[in-house]
Amino acid sequence: MIPFLDLRAAYAELKEGIDAAMLRVAASGWYVLGEEVAAFEREFAAYCGTKHCVGVGNGLEALELVLRAWDIGPGDEVIVPSSTYIATWLAVSAAGARPVPVEPDVRTANLDPDRVAAAITPRTKAILPVHLYGQPADMDPLMALAAQRGLKVLEDVAQAQGARYKGRRTGALAHAGAFSFFPTKNIGALGDAGAVTTDDDRLADRVRLLRNYGSKVKYVNVEAGVNSRLDELQAAILRAKLPVLDAWNDRRRALAAHYRERLAGIDIVELPYVPQWADPVWHLFTVRARDRRRVTDALDAAKIGWLIHYPIPPHLQQAYATLGLKQGDLPLAEQIADTILSLPISPHMPVAHVDAVADALRRAA
């Protein structure tokens, strides 16, 4: 059997360092907003090439706190991709604003800059591109448009830690970046964790304030903040993993290249499109299949794991019924949801598993 993902392998490779990190925190007697968080914030900011990193509770709250720090709220609109995980939309809603979906470049599933301009209204305050599946969105046109219209841009980097766009790392391409370190991510904690990256001193300062009950000084609260703090244990684990992130991403790239070689010419799947300027980190290796059931049946028969990211686009979820969008209103997002399929990939997956997937699909073709 080939699992879709085995997180135990990541721990096994770094067991000595992760165990030492956890014991170091346990022995320190300091478990929230201490030296481990401060050190990780410095190290991850340096990795991304930003002035600041602020550790928070998870990726959703990283997005929400940036929007709140920009004073985006009720009556405001934020442009979001129609094809994404619902957390991107939920962050906008949590801030009190309205998510305005824009259709993607169907080749990449990322936000299409050419469609964004038409969606801007006097209420628009920000654009929220997602680097979906580990591939950077086309950021330069979005940043130019935002500059022309006086808008903020927030990268959702939950799936793209270490990816590059025209040589620059994600998380340093816009006014701010929001990261998730959920265990399945390219660099994952052993629980929920997140971070915000930015070069903006005022933004970083306010996110630090908001994450800690709106307080800088104990028992002195200057605004209504939340409890969204990266804890010492997760920060220490992330510090143990950060030095190998690039190497693990390179392993993903090698597997993706082998997939592309072995799946070429199998007409029941369409291979992922990568623009020339993108250097993805292959958080997911996704193919498109017009007859997805035929493909998944073949994988099931070979005992190979697979997932769909994502089977129901946000506008068709009950959570967003109040937006009044119905089936057919965002056809590109729906087309992607109907055809997308994620195949196994991870830094610890042997090349032989790629061969097994390819053999199973070739037999079904």
UniProtKB/TrEMBL annotation:
PANTHER family: 3-OXO-GLUCOSE-6-PHOSPHATE:GLUTAMATE AMINOTRANSFERASE, TRANSAMINASE. Keywords: Aminotransferase, Pyridoxal phosphate, Transferase. The keyword Transferase applies. The modification N6-(pyridoxal phosphate)lysine is found at K185. Belongs to the DegT/DnrJ/EryC1 family. InterPro entries: DegT/StrS_aminotransferase, PyrdxlP-dep_Trfase, PyrdxlP-dep_Trfase_major, PyrdxlP-dep_Trfase_small. This is DegT/DnrJ/EryC1/StrS family aminotransferase. Pfam families: DegT_DnrJ_EryC1. It comes from the Bacteria. Transmembrane segments: none annotated. GO terms for biological process: polysaccharide biosynthetic process. One of its GO terms (molecular function) is transaminase activity. The active site is at K185.
